[in-house]
Amino acid sequence: MTTENETTHKAGDPQPWELKRRDDLAEKVPPHTLDALRKYRDCGYPVGHFLSAMMANDLRGACNRADDENAPAICDIFRWIYNRMPTAAWGTYEDVIAWVHDDTQIRTKIMGEHGERWST
């Protein structure tokens, strides 16, 4: 039995706090950075040195290359990458290069099969 303050939840549906958190992710990333991240993720467009460092888990390199808009948003940008980027697309510089070149067709396969999952 549920009270008036409780809501029913179906298995697999996102929790209300997850929806809020997802909406907040994109709002905190500078628009030009978000655009570059989405183009990289969806189409394999190369990104600049700052985002390459971010996706390669190179915090020192990212801090050295961040512009005035991205520097205060580094934590939010990383949260977006962690939550919105397929794991094959980031982690090392080699992963970033492989995602762009798509020689093994991993980007094509992931985005073809699960592209709608990454649509935000």
Description of the structure:
With 120 residues, the chain is an all-alpha fold. The protein has one domain (16-118). The protein is built from seven helices and no strands.
- Tally the beta strands: 0
What is the strand content? under 5%
**What is the terminal-to-terminal distance?**
35 Å
- Output the helix-strand order: HHHHHHH
Low-confidence stretches: 1-7, 15-20
Count of folded domains: 1
**Mean pLDDT, as a whole number?**
83
Instruction: Tell me the overall shape.
Output: globular
User: Structural class, from helix and strand content?
Assistant: mainly alpha
Work out the radius of gyration.
17 Å
Helical coverage, percent range? 55-70%
Largest sheet: none
Offer a few descriptive terms.
120 residues; mainly alpha; 7 helices; 57% helix; disordered N terminus
SSE layout:
Layout: H1 16-28, H2 31-43, H3 49-55, H4 59-65, H5 74-84, H6 93-101, H7 106-114
Helix pairs in contact: 1-5, 3-4
Short overview:
By secondary structure, this protein is an all-alpha fold.
